[in-house]
Amino acid sequence: MTRKHYLGPIVDVSFDGAVCAHAAECVRGMPAVFDTGRRPWIDPGVATTPELAERLRTVVGRCPSGALRIEEHRAHEQREQQ
Ligand code: SF4
After folding, report:
1. Whether the CB of 65 sits within 6 Å of ligand 1
2. Model-level pTM?
3. Is the C-beta atom of 24 inside 6 A of ligand 1?
4. Number of domains in the chain
């Protein structure tokens, strides 16, 4: 199982392709962040305001498989210290 991390200014997003159900909830919910025609296909970098970050949290929360996860920056900092 490989979980990849995509960094953003307010929140990060992680993704595990092994469990993705390809329901495309993410792509429908926030196409500026989730664009399967782009590499990397997840770019939390566009969520530059608290409102956009909150919307990203909501969209990630709709992922039916658990493939997507929000990584709040506190967790990210702990990861860097490991
Ligand atoms: S919403 Fe979740 S399960 Fe659906 S395509 Fe996106 S990552 Fe995969």
Report:
1. yes
2. 0.88
3. yes
4. 1
